[in-house]
């Protein structure tokens, strides 16, 4: 006999703005899974959720901030990181999580990303990489693979994509990892680790965009996930230069960088504050 | 001290604890002063990677509960427009000083102008209300920066301090009063049950109390059109409601916001309208004109935006004409012309930028036109 | 494709049992939970939810080990499992 346990709803309901669910993400879109992993990580990490804020830019992933039942800020396109930098420096007690997409963080916001990483601002960046601009209907992004079709590269993408972990590493990020939405548990644990870590943490999450990217590249949502299963290799501590995304060759996942370095706020206090202000 | 330093000191006197900046002539000295002073008093200075980031950072800092400001000049002001719009839409208080230089584009970096006045009004996309002040001396920069903070905190919007290279780099005596004699205003904070708080439900004064990050209100802020809960709502009705709030909080408080000064205006037949550094030209011109028997008076705009429409309108009923003096080729002049509604002629003494306008040019026009 | 070995302490490990809850009207029918359930206990149901999708249904309820994989991979917060404390049992060796 199976006794049904009385249930009080989905375990994440408390962290969701339920009056805004269902979210806008399409069927099969991976952002929801990444978002879910992020919320679970927030819960399990034990960080003070009242002091936790989510900041997003613009785009499909940028809608993340709108669904989390925490202080949440949906800013302008590409500017989530400088907005979040202002928040963190103004109130270092806040745990700042930036949840946004590849176009937002690395095309229009690329400059902000490298500088926040250089400064080692203590924040966690979760970048949903779905290889295109989904919100506007599937245009080429700085992460679109070479030769992939999008609405603005109908003959195939003539450009090369970014290797995001390499960029993050070169810019000074102190935690860098990459997972896919199929690797939910690793992803969740990685986000949890990043949330608890001091310094600039970057997690790239590969996620399918079946409606805009998948459709033009003959890849249904489940196909994408099967590719994530079959053509990825988990290789922690891989050197960031090996991390180009080429599914024909195999894509490397894992935690690549985990360093302990003084944060922006710590260095500012040490360098700029008069000593008597520091110890009262 | 110089006007730029006075600007930084005014910000500090108003309670500013965060400055996100980017170097630009002729506003750099504001950032330099702040970088020295803020860490001493528990605040934070950061030089961001560009003006877009500088503006975004001060909006973020303000949302985290700290009074924040930045300072820039024309090219940087252009880049800041994006997030000035965000601050307007999310109703986030902050202060932007624009130490104007001649443009367009890179223009004359080391020489002043007053040619960003319309950009101050309409530079960010969409329709909105904004407050812009125009000081005419380092002492006024000091006080008006405080006023800018007070207005921005009271009405929850970005306030612009439109100074210029001439007064920014002008050294004059600035008297800084005791802290207890400086009136500072801070945003209204919410009371009552946190779970029932609606971040954009206006209080009795038409302005919504502002919850800051980390207090447990779980607020959402977005640059999308939003309802009282702060949630995006993509309807015409929501747009009406939101626009109504951000317009009305300024339009219904014009008497509280708008500040002007008159000089020999009571019996004036000709009103010289000016603001900022050009005020100095006009004070001299009025005295000179009076000596020549021309009954001129000077209306100094301390608040340029919102524009004192009613005042110009009333004056137009009784005077012979208006002369606007400004270091551009006709911006506020257009406003004056509009507000006279054809009841009195409006003339311009303009300048393409790079130097101040000598009083003789005003006198010449007065002689010629009246 | 089950090429993993049986752990040496498999006899002693308590396998948890779970009960799957499905919030049918949140489902958008992506099928991730069905495809990737390690115990293959889910299938598409034939009925439609409010949005017109076929939500999953539990076809082998006794096989759920409460691993929560469906719960995390579901992009819609539409499925979760809770521990079935009444039916804990020793694993078969």
Specify the CATH class of the domain at 22-86 in chain C. Answer: Alpha Beta
How would you state the average pLDDT of chain B, rounded? 97
**Quick one: overall form of chain C?**
elongated
Rg of chain B: 21 Å
Largest sheet of chain C: 2 strands, antiparallel
Average pLDDT level of chain C? 89
Q: What's the architecture of the domain at 22-86 in chain C in CATH terms?
A: 2-Layer Sandwich
Q: Return the CATH topology of the largest domain in chain B.
A: Rossmann fold
Question: How many helical elements of chain B?
Answer: 13
SSE series of chain C: EEHEEHEE
List unreliable stretches of 5+ residues of chain C.
none
| Overall structural domain count of chain B | 2
Low-confidence stretches of chain B: none
Terminus-to-terminus distance of chain B:
40 Å
Structural class of chain B: alpha/beta
Strand content of chain C: 15-25%
Helix-residue proportion of chain C: 10-25%
Q: Order the strands across the largest sheet of chain C as they lie in space.
A: 1-6
Short description:
The complex is a heterotrimer of chains A (280), B (370) and C (93). Chain A is an alpha/beta fold.
Mind explaining what this structure looks like?
The complex is a heterotrimer of chains A (280), B (370) and C (93). Chain A is an alpha/beta fold and 280 residues long. Helix content of chain A is 34%, strand content 18%. Chain A has a single domain (15-278), classed as Thiamin diphosphate (ThDP)-binding fold, Pyr/PP domains (Rossmann fold, 3-Layer(aba) Sandwich). In chain A, helix 1 packs across helix 6. The N and C termini of chain A lie far apart (63 Å). Chain B starts with a helix and ends with a helix. Chain B has 370 residues and is of the alpha/beta class. Chain C has a domain at 22-86: Alpha-Beta Plaits. The chains are: A alpha/beta (280), B alpha/beta (370), C alpha+beta (93). The A-C interface holds A 1-5, 7, 9-13, 16, 21-23, 25-33, 35-37, 40, 181-182, 184-185, 188, 221-222, 225 and C 19, 21, 23, 26, 28-32, 35-36, 51, 53, 61-62, 69, 71-78, 80, 82-87. Strand 2 of chain A pairs parallel with strand 8 of chain B.
Architecture blueprint of SSEs:
The complex is a heterotrimer of chains A (280), B (370) and C (93).
Chain A: H1 31-45, E1 52-56, E2 71-74, H2 80-90, E3 95-101, H3 102-108, H4 110-119, E4 123-129, E5 132-133, E6 139-140, H5 164-171, E7 175-180, H6 184-196, E8 200-206, H7 210-216, H8 221-230, E9 232-234, E10 251-258, H9 264-272, H10 275-278
Parallel strand pairs in A: 1-2, 1-3, 3-4, 4-8, 7-8, 9-10
Antiparallel strand pairs in A: 5-6, 7-10
Helix pairs in contact in A: 1-6, 3-4, 4-5
Chain B: H1 3-14, E1 18-21, H2 28-37, E2 44-47, H3 51-63, E3 68-72, H4 74-90, E4 94-102, E5 108-112, H5 117-122, E6 131-133, H6 138-155, E7 158-164, H7 165-168, E8 220-222, H8 236-251, H9 254-257, E9 260-263, E10 270-274, H10 278-291, E11 296-301, E12 303-305, H11 309-318, E13 321-326, H12 332-340, E14 346-350, H13 359-369
Parallel strand pairs in B: 1-2, 1-3, 3-4, 4-7, 6-7, 10-11, 10-13, 13-14
Antiparallel strand pairs in B: 4-5, 6-12, 9-11
Helix pairs in contact in B: 1-2, 1-6, 3-4, 10-13, 11-12
Chain C: E1 14-15, E2 18-22, H1 32-36, E3 42-44, E4 56-58, H2 69-73, E5 79-83, E6 89-90
Antiparallel strand pairs in C: 1-6, 2-5, 3-4
């Amino acid at each position: 006999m199976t006794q049904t346990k009385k249930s009080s709803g989905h375990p994440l309901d408390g962290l969701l703005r339920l009056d805004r669910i269902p979210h806008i993400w399409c069927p099969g879109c991976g952002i929801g899974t990444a978002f879910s992993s992020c919320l679970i990580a927030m819960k399990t990490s034990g960080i003070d959720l009242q002091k936790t804020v989510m900041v997003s830019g613009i785009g499909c992933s940028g809608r993340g901030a709108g669904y989390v039942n925490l202080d949440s800020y949906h800013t302008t396109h590409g500017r989530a990181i400088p907005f979040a930098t202002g928040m963190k420096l103004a109130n270092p007690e806040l745990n700042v999580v930036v949840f946004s997409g590849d176009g937002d963080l690395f095309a229009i916001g690329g400059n902000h990303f490298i500088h926040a990483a250089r400064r080692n601002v203590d924040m966690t960046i979760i970048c949903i990489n779905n290889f295109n601009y989904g919100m506007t209907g599937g245009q080429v992004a700085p992460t679109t693979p070479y030769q992939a079709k999008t609405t603005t590269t109908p003959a195939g993408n003539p450009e090369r994509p970014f290797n995001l972990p390499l960029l993050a590493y070169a810019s000074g990020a102190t935690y860098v990892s990459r997972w896919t939405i199929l690797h939910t548990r690793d992803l969740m644990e990685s986000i949890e680790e990043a949330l608890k870590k001091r310094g600039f943490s970057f997690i790239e999450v590969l996620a399918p965009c079946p409606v805009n990217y998948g459709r033009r590249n003959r890849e249904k949502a489940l196909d994408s996930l099967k590719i994530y299963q079959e053509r990825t290799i988990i290789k922690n501590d891989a050197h960031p230069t090996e991390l180009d995304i080429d599914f024909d060759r195999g894509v490397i996942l894992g935690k690549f960088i985990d360093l302990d370095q003084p944060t922006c706020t710590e260095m500012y206090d040490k360098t700029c504050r008069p000593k008597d202000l520091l110890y009262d | 001290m110089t006007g730029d330093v006075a600007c930084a000191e005014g910000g500090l006197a108003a309670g500013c604890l965060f400055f996100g900046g980017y170097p630009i002539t002729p506003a750099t000295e504001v950032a330099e002063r702040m970088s020295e002073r803020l860490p001493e008093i528990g605040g934070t200075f950061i030089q961001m990677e560009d003006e877009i980031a500088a503006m975004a950072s001060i909006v973020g800092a303000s949302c985290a509960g700290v009074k924040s400001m930045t300072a820039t000049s024309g090219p940087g002001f252009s880049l800041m427009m994006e997030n000035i719009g965000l601050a307007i839409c999310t109703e986030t208080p902050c202060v932007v000083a624009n130490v104007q230089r001649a443009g367009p584009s890179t223009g004359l970096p080391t020489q002043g102008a007053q040619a960003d006045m319309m950009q101050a009004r309409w530079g960010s996309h969409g329709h909105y209300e904004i407050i812009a002040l125009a000081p005419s001396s380092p002492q006024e920069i000091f006080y008006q920066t405080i006023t800018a903070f007070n207005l921005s905190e009271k009405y929850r919007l970005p306030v612009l301090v439109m100074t210029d290279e001439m007064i920014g780099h002008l050294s004059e005596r600035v008297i800084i009063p005791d802290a207890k004699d400086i009136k500072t205003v801070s945003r209204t904070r919410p009371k009552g049950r946190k779970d029932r708080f609606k971040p954009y439900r206006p209080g009795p004064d038409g302005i919504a109390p502002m919850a800051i990050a980390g207090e447990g209100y779980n607020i959402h802020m977005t640059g999308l059109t939003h309802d009282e809960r702060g949630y995006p709502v993509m309807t015409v009705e929501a747009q009406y409601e939101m626009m109504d709030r951000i317009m009305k909080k300024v339009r219904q408080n014009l008497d509280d916001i708008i500040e002007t000064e008159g000089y020999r205006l009571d019996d004036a037949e000709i009103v010289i309208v000016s603001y900022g550094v050009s005020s100095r030209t006009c004070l001299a011109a009025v005295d000179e004109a009076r000596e020549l028997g021309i009954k001129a008076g000077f209306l100094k705009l301390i608040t340029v935006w919102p524009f004192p429409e009613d005042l110009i309108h009333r004056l137009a009923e009784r005077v012979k004409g208006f002369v606007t003096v400004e270091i551009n080729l006709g911006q506020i002049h257009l406003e004056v012309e509009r507000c006279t509604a054809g009841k009195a002629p409006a003339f311009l003494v303009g300048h393409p930028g790079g130097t101040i306008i000598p009083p003789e040019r005003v006198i010449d026009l007065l002689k010629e036109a009246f | 494709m089950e090429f993993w070995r049986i752990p040496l302490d498999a006899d002693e490990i308590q396998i948890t049992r779970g009960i799957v809850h499905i919030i049918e009207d949140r489902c958008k029918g992506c099928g991730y939970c069905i495809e990737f359930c390690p115990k293959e206990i889910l299938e598409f149901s034939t009925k439609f939810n409010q949005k017109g999708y076929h939500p999953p249904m539990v076809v082998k309820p006794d096989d759920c080990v409460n691993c929560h994989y469906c719960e995390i991979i579901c992009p819609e917060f539409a499925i979760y499992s809770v521990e079935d404390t009444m039916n804990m049992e020793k694993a078969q060796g």
